[in-house]
Give the backbone structure.
Amino acid sequence: MRGKITSLVISLVFLLGMTGNVIAAEYDHKAEVRGMEFSWKVADGNLHIKLMGRTKGWVGIGFNPSKGMQDANFILGYVDKGKVEISDEFGDTPINHKSDEEMGGTSDVTVVGGEEKGRATTLEFVIPLDSGDKYDSVLDPQGETTVLLAFGGNRDSLRSKHRSHHTITVNLSTGEVK
């Protein structure tokens, strides 16, 4: 009996270890913009996101700014020694953003996984379409969504300036990209 329990425990540990860093979600849509890929799926009131940038530093995405970065809901993150670090932020001015929590809001990001491989950083996470946080924009999957994509240099610091940034407009349901 003890041998069977030991074998079961070893098998479970092995399986859990194998799934720890697996990036396995399936996505319905993908947009590629000079050095970045944004893949997504809308399901169960959430937006499932895979974000890849050609950097060993941070990658980020923002939704629905009013001017520059102002009023955008930003998700920024990096991978350091295999550990994913993600921050939910808000564009408080046209050229700046701060942590939602620092401003009195909540972090509404569920980390799925991430990796730094070669010269690319990939993050996978889930955000609600409507978190109820005043620092997160409500995302309408049927309408047009302005998406800001950016990545920094080869530093794992969310306070370093972006090396590349782009703006696209997408329909989250159909996958149409403008």
Q: What stands out?
A: The two ends are 62 Å apart (CA to CA). Residues 2-19 form the longest helix (18 residues). The chain is about 10% helix and 50% strand. The domain at 25-171 is CATH 2.60.40.1210 (Immunoglobulin-like).
